[in-house]
Design goal:
The protein has 7 helices and 15 strands. With 276 residues, the protein is of the alpha/beta class. The protein has one domain: Nitrilase/N-carbamoyl-D-aminoacid amidohydrolase (4-Layer Sandwich). Helix 1 runs parallel beside helix 3 and helix 4 runs parallel beside helix 5. The protein is globular. This is omega-amidase.
């Protein structure tokens, strides 16, 4: 079985028309497949503007109109698709949800954003996803012929424990559809990717919407793939486009042999015990 994987990260321009957004995503999946991509990943909130004022308005069931379109695109083009995320409505709640589709149109996984983006950076940005969204409560993986893949959404990347669990579960690639902003993006976006990749000796890909300076929330862009040695394999600026990267999953094991963190971990040392 080949250890090679061609990955496409779609940095999508997202506007207020759900129909246009979804149509553009479908077209980009087709374009990526024509360039030999085997796995295509979309950004967070690929079908609507990112913002608490939009989530409830654009929310739909899963499967729903947006995810059904992605399902058909995966099937028609014979590729795996990580469907970024959409606002999902279920049981009177709204979730930030990623669906993963196989090349036969089968639903392989569904991930609800676990860590909600509630921050208040003085002089920068104040944002509270929890005003509208409910959190997911599970880890999400799926299997490719080449490797197991773990899924997080945006703010999930800041929580190192989540990536560590995915690594222990056997993942060699972690994908984070995300929409960092103009405050956190310049300083933390690439740094967090490198940190998660280096600590867990895995490939890490992030997929952002393209930057729209007229939006109420302006995305940083810079969709990127980092390898297990923390090298940037492929990246872009902030415009709409597709980032292609060719992964060698055997390289994960090579790095783990060179720096054997797995066998050197001191599990006996990492539990905090409070003395009474």
């Amino acid at each position: 079985m080949s250890s090679k994987l061609r990955l496409a990260l779609v940095q999508l321009a997202v506007g207020k028309s759900k129909l246009d957004n979804v149509s553009r995503a479908v077209q980009k999946i087709k374009e990526a497949a024509s360039e030999g991509a085997q796995l295509v990943a979309l950004p967070e909130c690929f079908n609507c503007p990112y913002g608490t004022q939009y989530f409830a308005e654009y929310a739909e069931p899963v499967p729903g109109e947006s995810t059904e379109a992605i399902k058909e695109a995966a099937k028609e083009n014979g590729v795996y698709v990580v469907g970024g995320s959409v606002p999902e409505s279920e049981g009177g709640k709204v979730y930030n949800t990623c669906t993963v589709w196989g090349p036969k149109g089968d639903l392989l996984a569904k991930h609800r954003k676990v860590h909600l983006f509630d921050i208040n950076v003085e002089g920068g940005i104040c944002f509270r996803e929890s005003d509208v969204l409910s959190p997911g409560n599970s880890y999400t993986t799926f299997d490719l012929p080449q490797c197991k893949v773990g899924i997080g959404i945006c703010y999930d990347i800041r929580f190192a424990e989540m990536a560590q669990v995915y690594s222990k579960m056997g993942c060699k690639l972690l994908l984070y559809p995300g929409a960092f902003n103009m405050t956190t993006g310049p300083v933390h976006w690439e740094l967090l990717q490198k940190g998660r990749a280096l600590d867990n000796q895995v490939y890490v890909g992030t997929i952002s919407p393209a930057r729209d300076t007229s939006a109420t929330y302006i995305a940083w862009g810079h969709s990127t793939l980092v390898n297990p040695w923390a090298d940037v394999v492929a990246t872009t600026e902030h415009e709409e486009g597709i980032v292609y990267a060719d992964l060698d999953l055997d390289y994960v094991q090579k790095v783990r042999q060179m720096v054997p963190l797995g066998s050197q971990r001191r599990g006996d040392m990492y539990e905090v015990v409070t003395k009474k």
